[in-house]
């Protein structure tokens, strides 16, 4: 008999490191629901040295029945922004305030304390102070930044003037609606205002969604691009290239199509899977080219389901149909009628039936990420990389998730391939909804 709960409410966070040895929340039943109040990612954790990763994601959830080699299907039912405002922009690390990696190993430049606790003294980019010696300890500053406030309708945001940004900065936790258990310093404290009066459309999504890696990895580095910073690093979380490949689960994707209505199929590398989420963004174009976007708090509703013996090397995304490239959309009845006419003319006895999939690839640059995604797709379906390249060229597209090294290999996959891989019911069900 199942011991898992049907619906699990999640409102607690990790210290920036995804550690498979730490106790998980749950268990939640196979087919059960996870409802989470997420904390902002990126900039808030980046200016909070006691968080040992670039994000503050939720504590992982144990999914009943999930074992290494399985996959967890995560259906995103809803994503709702709760922040009233946030701040973001390009970053520049501050020399002398970290050990090898400013996202992971912050060091006070005055007293030398590693991962120091901090206090906020005033507003602006010098407001984050070491709790021990009160030195300016922020490891990052803005090169060009903005404060953005959101419409009560959740449709647009508008960037603020200096006066408005400073008003928001003085009551940061209120405007960002950071969850009670979150320890991050609100980034609006910096009051950036280089862009004023810019209007941006909102379409929230999760920059972090996935399963726990099989060794401790900082949450922001659980991918092939940011993870490459850990290779040979001078701090506690260093790895080799082979270890990174073996243990990561690519939960940090920053793919704007990971939004309400989409489905993500994730590899399981530890018992229970350890589903975690966070780094909600209010909006973003492909690539997140500024390095950061509008990080917000929010409420997320997920539903999880276990696929046995999937043996995935990385995540698979099933986007909303409207988010698919033109060439990868399911065919209309009129298009199929035309295709049958061509087939009849040339004595082609049977047309291939297919459905869209997006295979995630990551690497230290976009070329390596593309190679990684193509190989994962070929391995999943037991075919050659050149075949996947042809299918992606004429029935799909390579799309950038995050610059420098996250892509989606999107194409129409034959239903026979999907059935053999144990994915057909999930993919067909997603596009019938």
Automatic annotation (TrEMBL):
Domain of life: Bacteria
One Pfam family linked to the record: FmdA_AmdA
Protein name: Acetamidase/formamidase family protein
Protein species of origin: Jeotgalibacillus haloalkalitolerans
